[in-house]
């Protein structure tokens, strides 16, 4: 049986491949905060700005960002930019212990 964490990771990976613009915005906004002197920042706050940027205007976005995804994007950022691996503080993902019910 798969854990809930594995299920969410698969969903996020699929979303990430389908919407690379979200990653580009996430990275850009994170580096904006780094340039402003922030040592740490919230991945959820960055993702909320991504949501704002992709939904502002007259049309609704072609996608919705799941609330479970910011932690995965924070971990991806830490791996992609090791010089800033502590920029987003992460916790142990409790969902690793929960199993998906069939």
Order of helices and strands: HHHH
Please outline the major beta sheet: none
Low-confidence stretches: none
| Cα end-to-end separation | 9 Å
Number of domains: 1
Share of residues in helices: 40-55%
**SS-based class:** mainly alpha
Please state the average pLDDT score.
87
How many individual β-strands? Answer: 0
Query: What is the tally of helical segments?
Result: 4
- Name the shape in a single word: globular
Nearest-angstrom radius of gyration? 14 Å
**In percent, how much strand structure appears in the residues?**
under 5%
Overview of this protein structure:
- There is one protein chain.
- It contains four helices and no strands.
- Helix 2 packs across helix 3.
- By secondary structure, it is an all-alpha fold.
Structure described in brief:
The protein is mainly alpha-helical.
Secondary-structure map:
Blueprint: H1 4-18, H2 20-35, H3 43-55, H4 70-80
For this entry, give a set of tags:
102 residues; mainly alpha; 4 helices
């Amino acid at each position: 049986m798969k854990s809930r964490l594995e299920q969410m990771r698969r969903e996020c990976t699929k979303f990430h491949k389908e919407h690379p613009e979200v990653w580009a915005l996430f990275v850009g906004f994170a580096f904006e905060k780094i340039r402003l002197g922030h040592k740490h920042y919230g991945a959820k706050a960055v993702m909320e700005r991504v949501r704002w940027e992709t939904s502002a205007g007259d049309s609704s976005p072609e996608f919705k960002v799941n609330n479970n995804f910011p932690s995965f994007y924070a971990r991806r950022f830490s791996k992609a930019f090791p010089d800033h691996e502590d920029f987003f503080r992460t916790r142990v993902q409790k969902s690793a212990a929960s199993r998906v019910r069939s």
